[in-house]
Amino acid sequence: MKDLPTPYYLIDESRLQQNLELIQRVREASGAKSVLALKCFSTWCVFDLMRQYLDGTTSSSLFEARLGYEEFGKEVHAYSVGFSRDDVKAVAAFADKIIFNSLSQLRQHHAEVEGRNLGLRVNPGISYSHFDLADPARRYSRLGVADKDALAEVAPLLKGLMFHFNCENTEVESICASLDTIGREYGDLLRRMEWVSLGGGLSFTQTGYPLERFCTALREFSRTFDVQVYLEPGEAAVTRSTELVTTVIDVVHNELDIAIIDASLEAHMLDHLVYRTTPSVAAPAAGPHRVMIAGRTCLAGDVFGEFGLAEPLRVGSEVRIADAGGYTMVKTNWFNGVAMPSIAVRRLDGTIEVVRTFGYDDFKRSLS
Amino acid sequence: MKDLPTPYYLIDESRLQQNLELIQRVREASGAKSVLALKCFSTWCVFDLMRQYLDGTTSSSLFEARLGYEEFGKEVHAYSVGFSRDDVKAVAAFADKIIFNSLSQLRQHHAEVEGRNLGLRVNPGISYSHFDLADPARRYSRLGVADKDALAEVAPLLKGLMFHFNCENTEVESICASLDTIGREYGDLLRRMEWVSLGGGLSFTQTGYPLERFCTALREFSRTFDVQVYLEPGEAAVTRSTELVTTVIDVVHNELDIAIIDASLEAHMLDHLVYRTTPSVAAPAAGPHRVMIAGRTCLAGDVFGEFGLAEPLRVGSEVRIADAGGYTMVKTNWFNGVAMPSIAVRRLDGTIEVVRTFGYDDFKRSLS
């Protein structure tokens, strides 16, 4: 990769495939279908691979639904926190299922899409999230319908329900307990449905996850209520597949060594700034050399973190930030006009393909 | 504006001009030149107006410097936290002044730009910021050179120094005290320079700001050390000039009324999410009707805030978010694929011009 200037996102299809194979195992063992959550990852240059293992896509807007339809194919689930009337008309051309967020959205728009496979998001009042910002059952949540009587009333309009209530949930017992609660609370309603989406935020592709226990719970839930279960993996589909490859452009010292790389936390891995979390470094390997790694924007807090590395960083050193696939490329921005990472893919056969580079014209066109 | 679909940013040139006239007054009364901080605002469709009142632009990357050169003209100050060698070569074609962030950057690159007007950023160890994230003198800061002996050593290579140490500083006494400190600590060095930039983050265009006191302090500083002073207004240049115009697409109730608008805090006014602050609503006016205003992405925390408004919000109501000019359009992103606000300008003669709309192809091209 000497020819490709940093920074770039490098998506490794072999690593992606490891996640996809686990998702396929869940499908086979539990009957649960999986649709890719485009809000987390919509880098369509690897959809040819992902399509072989997934049942389609789920979306949060008209544009995402269209992207799923055009570039992924298979099932297109179209959800939005708020569809406009025009959105609903347009999305009906692409979507297999249209999932509304509220009773008022359903009432406003269902006539427009009569006879279609419609769903409604439920706020079950339970959730799993380490972050209030991402907690769909937080106080004043606008996500989904909490009123069970009202749900029963509109059930004849619906073929399915969406329960999206997890964020980075690594605990299988938590999801099993939630399924029990949902079954107990919504059982009558579930029996009237054809499908139930359990949303995303389930970290079931991580190493050591008790997949059998997970699959058993899904299968039992599906059988008990006679529904097709859907999962919406986003991070679970792409975890550990992608690195942000950067080069050190300066090393300064202020109490400790600070290596400035040619990327930015805010512009290229935004969630770590928003949630005040720290990414991992994939290379150099861990070791005794303490260094703070920081971005090249003018933001004082554009800091990736403090790390112990096997070698000291110098101008020209390569630094690879790990796990740069989910919720990164979908929210890059042009802050400071710093160079936007290219997008490259290591295909299954080992060849590396540069699928997108960005230049000054892209920056200029982002404004006016 | 019935023809322009929401959401859109509406930049009002008359309001912009009010700020620009204050900046010009400061120039006349203090001798301090002002260069627009493109990191805050780089929507070049209003540069024809801004150019008449400002001395040029300052930038944080090669792309911003080029934009300043191509679209603004006049003086181009090129700063970067980290220039690569290629950046330095390229930026030399545009820049009147090149400002390095560190001794190592200066040492690495000065031979490449010999004879040019070079500056160096100083970390004076003092700062004014309500946010640690944006505090350039925070612990482990990588922004600027703190070592005074080293500064004296490289002074022969330099024509100027940049002190950027404020963020949203509304207190004139604070800036006066800082100027005294800087004069006392760096006086000898300052006398060897032609220019000194005091950076941005000074809220001197806000209503009631004691401009005379400010100008006197700047003029005295400039005379004492015989330097041309530069200011780098960003927010001060565009404050109160721009609204984000949106439409309510749904109203739901969960303890309180929640109006969902066709925009997003994360995608379109990112800093409020990062800093956990709340924007103001420009319209409807303030009043007794309590409502939470939230965005249309799937993020639970995509919430603009709770407001009391003169009228209840209904589907179709227009909501204008105030002060949407600074640090907004420069960091929009395509999270959830929600529609990107267009950019419109109310020109001085009152006509409204739509200068940029974004569509599905822009979304798709942001990925690959």
UniProtKB/TrEMBL annotation, chains A, B:
Keyword annotations: Cytoplasm, Decarboxylase, Lyase, Polyamine biosynthesis, Pyridoxal phosphate, Spermidine biosynthesis
Keyword Cytoplasm belongs to the record: yes
Predominant place of localization: cytoplasm
Domain spans labelled Orn/DAP/Arg decarboxylase 2 C-terminal: 244-325
Compartments, record wording: Cytoplasm
Pfam families in the cross-refs: Orn_DAP_Arg_deC (PF00278)
Cofactor: pyridoxal 5'-phosphate
Domain of life: Bacteria
This enzyme's EC code(s): 4.1.1.96
Entries under SUPFAM superfamilies matching the protein: Alanine racemase C-terminal domain-like, PLP-binding barrel
First-level EC class: lyase
PANTHER family per the UniProt record, alphabetical: CARBOXYNORSPERMIDINE_CARBOXYSPERMIDINE DECARBOXYLASE (PTHR43727:SF1), DIAMINOPIMELATE DECARBOXYLASE (PTHR43727)
Description of how the protein assembles with itself and partners: Homodimer.
Role noted for this protein: Catalyzes the decarboxylation of carboxynorspermidine and carboxyspermidine.
Protein name as annotated: Carboxynorspermidine/carboxyspermidine decarboxylase
Organism, scientific name: Thiorhodococcus fuscus
Source lineage: Bacteria, Pseudomonadati, Pseudomonadota, Gammaproteobacteria, Chromatiales
Gene name in the database record: nspC
